[in-house]
C-alpha cells in the first residue's frame, strides 16, 4: 500500500533547525550506508586572504572533507588582478589541503569561462563536464592531484 494511503507518515517541509537532532543522530549512519564502510566524517572550512595593507584584495574559501579539498569561492578584486594573487591563494589552499592529507583539490566553474583558463594555468585539469548544471549552464569540474 502506498505510504500516502497508509495514513501513517506525514510529508512536510521542516522548519529551519528542526531536523538538527535527526541529522546529528544519523550522520554516521547515512554516510556509512552510502559509502559502504564506517565513515568518521571530519569536515572543515578555511578562509584564506591576501591583503593590500589592511584591505582584503582577494580571498578563497575551501571546504575539506573525506580527503578532498573543494574550492567553494575565490575572488580577487578587479584592481588587483593579473599580479599573481589568485595563483598565490590557490597555492596556499593546496598547502592547507596537503596538510590535511587531501589527495585532490577540486573546483567547479562555468565551462570555457575565463576562470577555467585561470585554473588550467594553475595546473588544474577538467575531470568532467556537467551539462546544463548550475543556472542551467555547463559546468567544468576541475581538479589537481596533490600526491
Ligand atoms: C579568476 C581570478 C581569481 C584570477 O585572479 P588573478 O589574481 O587575476 O590571477 P593571477 O594573476 O594569479 O593569474 C594566474 C595565471 O592565470 C592566468 N589568468 C588569470 N586570469 C585569467 C583569465 N581571465 N583568462 C585567462 N587566463 C587568466 C594569468 O595569466 C596567469 O597565468 P601565467 O602565470 O601563466 O601568466 C580573478 O579574475 C577573479 O576573481 N575572477 C572573478 C571570480 C572568479 O571567476 N573566480 C574563480 C572561480 S571560483
Question: Which structural category do the helix and sheet elements fall into?
Answer: alpha+beta
**CATH homology group:** Gcn5-related N-acetyltransferase (GNAT)
CATH topology: Aminopeptidase
SSE sequence, one letter per element: HHEEEHEHEE
Strand order of the largest sheet: 1-2-3-4-6-5
Q: Describe the largest sheet.
A: 6 strands, mixed
Bound molecules: coenzyme A
Give the C-alpha Rg: 20 Å
Number of domains: 1
**Can you tell me the overall shape?**
elongated
Please identify, by name, the CATH architecture: 3-Layer(aba) Sandwich
- Please report the number of helical segments: 4
Q: How much is the average pLDDT?
A: 95
N-to-C CA distance: 52 Å
Strand content: 35-45%
The top-level CATH class is: Alpha Beta
Number of strands: 6
Are there runs of 5+ residues with pLDDT below 50, and where?
none
Percentage of helical residues?
25-40%
Amino acid at each position: 500500500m502506498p505510504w500516502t494511503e497508509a495514513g501513517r507518515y506525514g510529508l512536510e517541509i521542516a522548519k529551519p533547525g528542526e531536523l538538527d537532532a535527526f541529522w546529528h543522530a544519523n550522520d554516521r549512519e547515512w554516510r556509512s550506508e552510502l559509502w559502504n564502510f564506517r565513515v568518521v566524517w571530519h569536515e572543515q572550512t578555511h578562509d584564506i586572504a591576501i591583503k593590500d595593507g589592511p584591505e582584503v584584495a582577494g580571498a578563497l574559501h575551501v571546504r575539506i572533507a573525506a580527503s578532498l579539498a573543494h574550492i567553494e569561492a575565490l575572488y580577487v578584486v578587479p584592481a588587483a588582478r593579473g599580479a599573481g594573487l589568485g595563483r598565490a591563494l590557490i597555492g596556499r589552499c593546496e598547502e592547507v589541503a596537503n596538510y590535511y592529507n587531501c589527495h585532490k583539490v577540486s573546483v567547479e566553474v562555468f565551462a570555457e569561462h575565463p576562470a577555467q583558463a585561470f585554473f588550467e594555468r594553475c595546473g588544474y585539469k577538467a575531470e568532467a563536464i556537467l551539462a546544463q548544471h548550475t543556472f542551467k549552464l555547463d559546468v567544468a569540474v576541475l581538479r589537481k592531484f596533490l600526491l
